[in-house]
Amino acid sequence: MAKTSAVEKNKRRRKLVANHAAKRAALKAIIQNQSLPIEDRFKATLKLAALPRNGSKTRIRNRCEVTGRPRAFYRKLKMSRIALRELGNLGKVPGIVKSSW
């Protein structure tokens, strides 16, 4: 089980990303628009830098919804390999059966 503080911090980051997504996208569009004057683009760069760092989508860490584990994460199932194996052995994940030979 992962530390509760790490899981909660990641949840706060997800909320910040949702709140600032539109503003960040608008500022990035201004910055990348070559037809605008350089002064306007520079002001947009400063505004983007003033936004909270945790509002960036790249700061979010994919975590297992069962255990909170940050590594070995399957995106399609939203869980780690360890949780997948345990739930698969118990028959709680449809379509997963233990292989034996």
Q: Would you write up a description of this structure?
A:
There is one protein chain. With 101 residues, this protein is mainly alpha-helical. 51% of the residues lie in helices and 4% in strands. The chain has three helices and two strands. It has helices at residues 4-32, 38-50, 81-90; strands at 73-74, 79-80. Strands 1-2 form a two-stranded antiparallel sheet. Strand 1 (73-74) and strand 2 form a beta hairpin. The longest helix has 29 residues, at 4-32. The model has no long low-confidence stretch (mean pLDDT 93). GO terms for molecular function: rRNA binding; structural constituent of ribosome.
Unreliable stretches covering 5 or more consecutive residues: none
State the shape. Answer: elongated
First-to-last CA distance: 31 Å
Total strands: the figure is 2
Helix content: 40-55%
What do the pLDDT scores average to? 93
Number of helices: 3
- Please tell me the total number of domains: 2
Q: Can you summarize the main beta sheet?
A: 2 strands, antiparallel
Content-based structural category: mainly alpha
CATH class of the largest domain: Mainly Alpha
**What fold name stands as the CATH topology of the largest domain?**
Helix Hairpins
Helices and strands, in order, run as: HHEEH
Radius of gyration over alpha carbons?
20 Å
Strand content: under 5%
Strand order of the largest sheet: 1-2
Assigned CATH architecture of the largest domain: Orthogonal Bundle
